[in-house]
Each structure stands twice: as structure tokens, then as C-alpha cells.
Write a structure and sequence with these properties.
3 domains, single chain
Length: 252
Amino acid sequence: MRQGKELAASAVRSIKSSKPTGNTSSRNRSSQKPQGTTPRRGEVPPSARSATGITPKLIAELFTTMTGLYGAKWTKEHGLADRTGAWLNTLKDLDPKLLALGIKRCQREKDWPPSVPEFLRLCQPKPEDIGLPPMAKAWLEANDGAGSPSHHPWSHRAVYLAGRETGWHELRSALTAQEQRDAKVRFANAYQALIIKAVNGESLEPQKAIERQFDPTIYSERLQRKTMKEQGIDPLDGASARAKLKGMSFDA
């Protein structure tokens, strides 16, 4: 068992450092195939492969790692290699860095080898892994803040952005069970996309959107209101404000 854990740790390091370029021999073999050749069962067509996704080499390394972790359990379930191409087809668009996350979760959570869909889910980062509110908590907060999103004290920018992507009106007006399910699915997809951006070190928003967050006009108005409140003037009551100003002394 210890040997399996050491093999898994070694594979995790290898996967983290791997560049998703595929091996040269695989590319040479594929280049020799005549154009228009129908891919074999389980083979991913070249046009469907992501330049930044999973390669056959990484799948082979994954099988070696899983065999080290689970031994005969793995080989009984999946064999020594991805002969049908099911793993490559399912994981082909996954960021290679997330393979390591899936392997670590298998070590912690799975006593029996996962299926391909199960492993794909294990590779998806959870918001709490990177300091974001859990999905359920973020969903409740998005609903709470949908009535006045610009004034709600959001726990994280990602929750606000996912709510905005879902649609504030849609969140407020989702009354039936089906409408609520649809809104929840849209929110979950938007939130998960932001989580993956954060994991990859990407900005959650385009630079232009970030620049628009600071509006000098809005900032000036807010500062003016804050100053008036500190002076005991109700900024929404014009008559009160004029009376207060008349009673002020401007002598040096």
C-alpha cells in the first residue's frame, strides 16, 4: 500500500509538470493516416482533441497511478490500459492540472476505483478548496442578494458574478419548482466556471469590466452622501438640508 501511495505521489508530480503536447510518436503515426479515415472505436478524432487537454500519454500515466493505488481492483474494473478510449474521450477537454486533484481525492475518498464519470467529478475543484463559499451557500446568497445586488455585502466577487450571469430578474422571479431548478443549474454552471478560472490563476472578469467597477461620478456622490450624514444632514431631505446649511457658521 505504501508503494502504491509513493507511486501516486510520483505520478501527481509528473502530471503537474507535464505539458499537454502529446508524444511525438503518436503524432507521427496519426500524420501517416490517410485523410478521411474513420477513427477506430473509442479513438478521439484529431479535430476533437483540445490543444490544452488530456493526451494519451497522460491517460497511460493515470492508469499506472491507479493500478498502484488500487491494484487488482483497478485492473479488474478497467484493465491495464484505456483500450476502448473511454477515459480519453471523457477527459479529453479537462485541464491536465486537474488530474492531480482527481487522484488526490481518490486517495482520500474512494476505497473502490471510480468509474470514468465519477473520476471526472472528482477532478472538478470545489469552491471551498480555494477559499470561496460552498456551492449551496453561494446559491442561497445569490437569491438573498438578487433584490438589490448593488447594495448586498457579497462574501466574494465570484458569487456576485455567478448571480449576474444567471440573471437577477430570473433569480427573483423563479417561483415554480422547474424555474428554480433551471436557475440553480445556470448558477451552478456559472459559479463552477469561475472556480476553474480561479484555480488556473485567471482573472474572474475581463480587464475592461474591472476598470468600469470604479466610476468617479458614483464615488463622488457616495462621498458627498457620507459627509452629509456625518454632519447630521439627511441627503434625501432637501428642505432639511437647506435648513441645516442656513444654520451653519462659516466664520474662520
